[in-house]
Amino acid sequence: MEIRGALVLRKRQVLILFVLLGLSQARPESVPYSVAEETEIGSLVANLARDLGLGVEELSSREARVVCDDNEKHLHLDLLTGDLLINDKLDREEMCGSTEPCVMHFQMVLENPLQFFQAELHIKDINDHSPTFLDNEIVIKISESTAIGTTFLMESAQDLDVGSNSLQNYTVSPNSHFYIKIQDSDDGKIYPELVLHRALDHEEEPELRLTLVALDGGNPPRSGTTLVLIKVLDINDNAPEFPQRLYEVQVPENAPVGSWIITVSAKDLDAGNYGKILYTFFHASEDIRKTFEINPISAEVHLRSQLDFEVVQSYTINIQATDGGGLSEECTLLVKVIDTNDNPPEVIISSITKIIPENAAETLVALFSVRDQDSGENGRIICSIQEDLPFFLKPTFKNFFTLVSDKALDREERAEYNITISVTDMGTPRLKTEHNITVLVSDVNDNAPAFTQTSYTLWVRENNSPALHIGSVSATDSDAGANAQVTYSLLPPPDPLLPLASLVSINPDNGHLFALTSLDHEALRAFEFRVGATDRGSPALSSQALVRVLVADANDNAPFVLYPLQNASAPCTELVPRAAEPGYLVTKVVAVDGDAGQNAWLSYQLLKATEPGLFGVWAHNGEVRTARLLSERDAPKQRLVVLVKDNGEPPLSASVTLHVLLVDGFSQPYLPPPEAEAAAAAPADPLTVYLVVALASVSSLFLFSVLVFVAVRLCRRGGAGSAGRCPVPEGHFPGHLVDVSGTGTLSQSYQYEVCLMGGPGTNEFKFLKPIIPDLPVQDSGRHIGENENFRNSFGLNLQ
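Now predict its structure.
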């Protein structure tokens, strides 16, 4: 089993080359060569390149190979010299047996383009075998009454050599009774016959011992010997007789060992010991004796070993019947072996390509041949592969096929194909052989990287730390290997003024984005750029994605008071008449916040006041109004501190100080600020006092005239109005805060009528009155009674 397995493995490893697709490209003539058997390995047979008119470089470039018909590596082609060399020792007797001439056919195949040359190697016989007798002793029984000149058939010797080296002559040891006569047979072989030269005498010499020598024609000749024992018998005048000279029988090759083949029987008219017949194979080869056996008594022929139609199709067996007196007769048994389907088809791979590129069309995958050692329908073969694969089989020459891809493959769709070559014969039962081939599809860079999103939106809180990871982009490539390795990069922004390189960076390996600097929402609220993803194929493919970065606001800006100004050289003083009704608009604190959203929502609160409960601040718009009627007990100078606070976390705030001057009908002069009073408290020069008194008198006269004029104007205007003043709307204002353009918090728009009157020195004053659409006039009695509700209805903060 080990030897047989090694032979099968060796056969599978042989590369069988194909002929060209057209028979017109093959050379029909065969180039003959000859070599003696048992020639040493490496011996030169011929120079094929010179004989075929090919260059040595062409042999290598076209991958020249030599293939023998029996799929064995008997020969080797040296691609460097073009010499055909012996690859193993050739035994003519093992390869051809007795066939002469012994011819081994082989082919040389060139690829690119495929070209086929046929040649044959004649293996010449050498005298390496001596004649041998199958029996060490030949026993011949001869009656003493045998006439002179009678011939006796002798067992022939076997010589595996052929031609002049085969068996040529027989000799017998010197004696006075017999000599050897050579007899030629129809098959070209010679057989020895023992001829009686002098009469035998049983009483004088009952047996003789002779030496039979077989000689071949070699130089020097080889010989073989056997002992011939001649027993002299009494007279026996009847030889056995067979009913027929030729017997034919058909035996299936799968017949079990020990099966009965046929019974041949002969008759002998003699009685007693002379009538007893013994049956033996006559002139039978060693192969016949190993395959068949005959019962010497019953003449039944049985099968001794398994038949094989693929090795021997028929046997010719000579059977000899010998009686007890030494007389014999022969008949011939022809055994024909019937073929059965006992050999599965074989697939012999010559060349194979296991990796093919995905964009190549009609690529040669495998080159193989099929065969079946059976005959007839048992040896007829059908070859196929799966139908759902992009491959097809293409017959080329005799039993050779090529496996070719049908179209360009797509590795991303399928990276591996398992192809099963099925070979089925047409025998009964049908035998099937399958050969699996795995084909890998190599990748070509035909897919660009694809981002998981076409655009990305990233949020980063302002005042971030540098090198902060703000997000990631990701792209995948359906290719493989280097073709799927993605490198990320920032693309130049469409806006040349955007310093993208100083704002963000990207990790080229994983697509992580980092903020390089601390971002400021107030300076840059959002920016966008494009990110590229490039693979490492050749040529490289790339794609882009849009990234938008939104800078989230943080509460990093405190409210800023626009009015009243706090950095002026003199504080701003508001004038309020003592006759002002509750809800009178004193002034409006205007503030803004550089932040956005909730961080810019401002609320107002009265922190300190000279007269708690006298003034209130509307929390939503910063309006400062009177909360009740003014009385004579109220100090004429009021100082208010208003807190402006945003809605951030934590909240930031700013404060503003208001100076309010209570006047009676705007007739009192504008009082100087506390700093001026301190300066006036210092002792004055007498001359200065006189000048001040004179100036005050003149100014008082002028101011009185002006006040009279203003009073007249006010009275006329007051008479024109039906109600005399604007009613205060009831109900609560909405509690929500409104962001106005992101620069401050004013919940509503207001218009003010400003009355200004110029005068010398510091006698400037102003009067602000909100112009509010007229609401239905309320009952006067109710108006006075609801002064306490004023604070709540306007959402005032009192201190």
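Confidence is low (pLDDT under 50) at residues 1-28, 667-684, 720-799.
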